[in-house]
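Minutes, methods subgroup
Present: GH (chair), OT, SY

1. OT presented the first of two proteins processed in the latest run. Sequence and structure tokens recorded below as shown on screen.
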Amino acid sequence: MPEGPEIRRAADRLGKWLIDRPLDEVWFAFPTLQQAADSLLGRRVTAVDCWGKALLTHFDNGRVLYSHNQLYSRWMLHARDKPPETKRSLRLRLTTENRAASLYSASDISLHDAGALDDHPFLRRLGPDLLSHRVSPQDVMARLQLPRFRRRGLGGLLLDQHCYAGIGNYLRSEMLFFAGLRPERSPQSLSLVEMERLGEVMVATMAQAYHEAGVTNRPAWRQPLQQAGLPRRAWRHAVFDRAGESCHACGAFIEKHSVASRRLYLCPVCQC
């Protein structure tokens, strides 16, 4: 399932493909949206942003296209006259003189005025996006100590999109491991040193996953595995999806737990 870094990378690819290119054709699968398609003809995309799993495509007339990636939706970039071969259902296509961007399998698509985004029923409930909103470790420390978050276990809190948007299952396990914290710990139980480390780890892990296409493992731990020819799954993460394998740091066996109805991986020695 895509998480914040994957959505941010998708937004960046879409932006590089479309920004500053006038739209020649706009097509929506939904009749109510198709009625507004003409309002985008000749317009240019000025930015493509993301917030959690939502992509926000901004146009030069102040309109914003909202699309939620959900579980299966996918943007495909292609030449105008060469649509991709896929069995997915086409929901939206933006076409320039020689390029096109097609959105498949999405069900949550809408058009808004930029000034009305604060009232969007999904976006207004989200916490900050660690990548898009340039969150600092100090911001994380302050937010996790808010009364509505500070007593909650980190294992559930890190998946709560009201706290921070874009953190999913693999990032949660990796962040807690690198911070040396068990999932049942709460922000209020952390020392200042632990809180500072958690803030730094959350920001750094999200940034690494973005820059390295979902890889969160340390170079020193993954490089020998890569050189041995092991598949990406074997070296991508430090603990996630590695139950029963040895911890890179201490050699203990990685454990698999269920926290907030989702699988979580941890080192019983490194995390306390």
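2. SY then presented the second protein from the same run.
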Amino acid sequence: MSRDTPPRRGRATLNRVTARLPVFPLGTVLFPGLVLPLHIFEERYRALVRHLVGLPEGAPREFGVVAIQAGWEVALGAERAGREVTLHEVGCTAELRQVTELADGGFDIVTVGRRRFRIAGVDEAAAPYLTAEVEWLPEPAGTDEVADLLAARVISVFRQYLGLVRPDPQEISEQLPEDPTVLSHLVAATAALTVADRQRLLAIDDTAARLRAELRLLNRETALLRHVRAVPVPLNELAGPPTPN
């Protein structure tokens, strides 16, 4: 491809820019464009919200959301005790859109995912909350025929999946985005996937590759849902512990 050829959507650009971000460890994965409401009750994160609200007009009010690698309950207890928690390498910034201050000094906030990043280093001493040196991950630009074709297939399979998890047809009648990148983020955040599955999807730079991975996951989940509905299972089996098989 010559230098004058515009980049294709789904192909990551290679410019690497770093920044320092406040970091909020969570037991979930945030994707660009998705809404994330949060209840802020710990003092260190109250301080983070106060810092963001106090920024000059026009300054980006965002922090990094990074999923915790260990089990959420274990990691949350470790963080509250001041012990180190293990974070995933790739996260997504959350832009502060709405803040409601509560009588006890906490906050209810609404954020929207914006930009993916990779953590280069974490600083636990620079502020009451974690901060990190991050590298912005490239986002696709231009057009990509492969991603367009995959997006159509993902929409079809995703509607079948929704039909199995949402019996009410009115719940699946909403218009799905046609842009392949936006669609890939919506599917990753909406489907009932594990944190590990979502994290792997977030870390994929190429839209077409993310859509291919989602096709595999959706086909897997759809097949499992159909199998469970097709095979009657006694209630006493559902209530018992899982077998080694």
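Chair's summary of item 2: The domain at 18-136 is CATH 2.30.130.40 (Archaeosine Trna-guanine Transglycosylase; Chain: A, domain 4).
Next meeting: continue with the remaining queue.
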